[in-house]
Amino acid sequence: MAGTGKIYKRCGCRDAVSSKRLEQHCPRLSERGHGSWYFDCSAADAFGGPARARRGGFPSKAAAGRARDEWLTRTGEARTARGWTLERWLRYWLSTRTKIRPTTKAAYTRDVEQFLIPHLGRITLEDLNIRRIRKGFDEIAQSTNGRGQPQTPSCLHHLRTTLRAALNLAVRDGLLEANPIRHLELPSYRKPHAQVWTPARVAEWRATGRHPAVAVWTAPYLAAFLDAVTADRLFALWWLIALRGLRRGEACGLRWSDIDLDHGVLFIVRNRATVGYHVIEGEPKSAAGMRAVALDKHTVAVLREHLRRQHLNQAARTVAGKPCYDSGYVFIRPDGRPLHPQYATRHFARLVKRADLPPIRLHDLRHGAASLAHEAGADLKTVQDLLGHASILTTADTYTTVLPPAQRHCAEATARLVLAAARRTRERIRKTAGRNRPARRPHNKRRTAKKR
């Protein structure tokens, strides 16, 4: 062990002419007390790669030798934790995420590169503790997002999830004894639930411009929107999302070969997601997302009309000598290439504003589809299958915003139930009291007469 690596002496003196540090070439190094001792050695890390250590500032050669021997006796995991910074570990962790969705990988990469590395990346795994993590997250919380506003609690919770996943791997690989981020407390965050556009909320929005982060239209507002966009070339897209609850990526990835108009059914087998502005086409969000969706006769008619318009447009472009691609997708650009999902989002926002309707997001049409189906009498299991949720809890907690008519029906049914129970209870008490009441004594006329 004593012969491994190198031990040397150096100082901080500089050359009088070039001002460069003399380090190991200083003529005074032989003097006692001038300079300090260093060691330089290498050994295998936890992954079999070379881990190099260079330490200094020791008062004697013996002290440097003892520090070197102590470092060499460490395990490969301990050497990795001492030598690897969080930046290096996060990038290694990202390289191991090979079986996740591209959009998930992009979200992890954004968290790592934009937030975690700039604020925590220089800390070694060995020195990473809750105090350093809390300080880094405090710095992130004080920064601003792309809109010039403070980072939201949602962003901080997402960053904690990413860092926790990365450090969990370090724990499993033996580099950390425990995950230090498990002690991190953040401002509470509650996922916003969809609010219904009631007349009172609409009046407030028109007066102040404020509106809920997530909102859904009632049936009259949805009907007004569909009536206003009947001539839009993507009318069938809005119809499918609003009435059959397709995700944006599922609708944009739909091909004519996935639809059976004669039997009234379409099959969700792909999803067109975006990473930045780059489109990635793959399988649906979950296994439950790969599903069959029944089509009513009105939806079939809408899709047939959409197909007819598509053929007329393609024929017109061909006659005009303009390029026209037969991509096979249901929703396409004017030249036939598949529609970009972000264009659908922006175009929908323009249509809503043009129709002077309360603002909602494109994804909120999916919320509304679930709520309207639930109000129309569909049970949660049916709504779950319609939307392609892996868990019915997601359907119940997020997508079944109860609309006012359903609220009134529920309130009236509850009142009837309680009042009926109260009437039965009063009747039971009355009957019980009647049975337990003592019998009346017979009226004694003779005794009454004597008293008189």
CATH superfamily of the largest domain: Intergrase catalytic core
Helical stretch count?
17
How many domains make up the 3D coordinates?
3
- In total, the number of strands is 11
Strand content: 5-15%
* Overall SS class: alpha+beta
Radius of gyration, in Å, reads 36 Å
What is the CA-CA span between the terminal residues?
A: 128 Å
Indicate the CATH class of the largest domain.
Mainly Alpha
In percent, how helical is the residue content? 40-55%
Order of H and E elements: EEEEHHHHHHEHEHHHEEEEEHHHHHHH
Q: Detail the poorly predicted runs.
A: 447-452
CATH topology of the largest domain: hpI Integrase, Chain A
Q: What characterizes the major β-sheet?
A: 4 strands, antiparallel
Mean pLDDT: 86
CATH architecture of the largest domain: Orthogonal Bundle
Strand adjacency order, main sheet: 2-1-3-4
What characteristic shape results from the CA principal axes? elongated
